[in-house]
Design brief:
CATH class: Alpha Beta
Order of helices and strands: HEEHHEH
Shape: globular
Number of domains: 1
Oligomer: single chain
Largest sheet: 3 strands, mixed
CATH topology: GMP Synthetase, Chain A, domain 3
CATH superfamily: K homology (KH) domain
Strand order of the largest sheet: 1-2-3
Length: 111
C-alpha cells in the first residue's frame, strides 16, 4: 500500500476525530482536547492517536481513560463517516506537546 494513501487516511482520521471528540459526553473527557498526531500503520489496522490538553498532562491522562472506554463509539463513528472497509484499532496516548511548545514560546519571549 502506498504511503500516500496512509498519509491521506491518517489526515482524514485526524479531522474526523477532532469533530467526534466534541460529541463525547463522558465527564472524564475534557472539552479542550487537541488531536496532535495520528500514526496509522501501513496495513490500516492500528492507529495511535496522540491527545494533548491545554490544562496539563493529568487532564490529558484522564481524558485518555475516557476515550479508551468510548473507543467503540468512536470506531463506529469513524467507520460511518469515512466509509472504510475496516476501521483501525484505536490507541489513545496522552501527549504534552502543547505545554512544551508554550514553554518554549515563553522562553523565546523572555529573550
Amino acid at each position: 500500500m502506498s504511503s500516500f494513501k496512509v498519509g491521506r487516511m491518517s489526515e482524514d482520521i485526524k479531522r474526523e476525530l477532532t469533530d467526534i471528540l466534541r460529541d463525547i459526553k463522558d465527564p472524564r473527557v475534557d472539552q479542550m482536547l487537541t488531536v496532535v498526531r495520528v500514526d496509522l500503520s501501513n496495513d490500516l489496522s492500528h492507529c495511535k492517536v496522540y491527545i494533548s490538553c491545554f490544562e496539563g498532562m493529568e487532564k490529558a491522562k484522564r481524558s485518555v481513560e475516557g476515550l479508551t472506554s468510548a473507543a467503540g463509539f468512536i470506531k463506529r463513528e469513524l467507520f460511518h463517516r469515512l466509509h472504510m472497509r475496516k476501521c483501525p484499532d484505536l490507541k489513545f496516548i496522552a501527549d504534552d506537546s502543547i505545554a512544551h511548545s508554550a514553554e518554549i514560546n515563553q522562553k523565546l519571549r523572555e529573550l
